[in-house]
Amino acid sequence: MLNRRSLRSRHVSAIGFSAPLFVVAALLGACGTDTVADTSTVVFAVDMSAEIERGDFDPDADRVGVRGDVLPLSWGESQIATDPDGDRIFELAVRFEQRPVSPIAFKFKIERTAHPNDGWQVGANRSLDLEASTRFEAMFSDSAELREPSFSGVFEFHEDFKPDDSPLRARNIFVYLPPGYGTSDTRYPVLYMHDGRNIFDASEVGAEWGMDEYA
Question: Which of 99, 124, 125, 204 is the most buried (most CB within 10 A)?
Fold first, then answer.
């Protein structure tokens, strides 16, 4: 259940870990994948035509790459794709020293120096079974099919939350409330986690950490 209530009156005490809330706040989770001792090379190709025409991607200044959950891919740094023939289709060949048994999860991301946390492809992580394919082609604007939300427990959702006089931009914050919180005087410690709704739910983007089920 998502309720919209102000968090402002509790923000200062929450910083001191004395507010009666268990907060898991917001950005991408990663998950492991089993491998076998075999190599495999995959070509990732992404069509950036629509983004170039809209002015959302400047091929002279921006870069586009791939992030994923199996080395040499990672969620922390992009492997950069290139477009040597100028057809607006950027390609990257990735050699996996150990071929994953299960499908790999990955996503394309536009890299901009001014906004390093932006540029993620919309929707859930893409999936590729290396047993069946060694090439993945897509338009950057393609969105993966959304899944049903998987929130477990009671939540508060605070849209565009921004503390007074803060230089930081507004963020959406999801607050998980412990069982019995609404009828208890117990003071709870506060845990802040930075991966957006993916801490609890991956119906719109990325992979889920499952912290609401764990709690």
Answer: 125
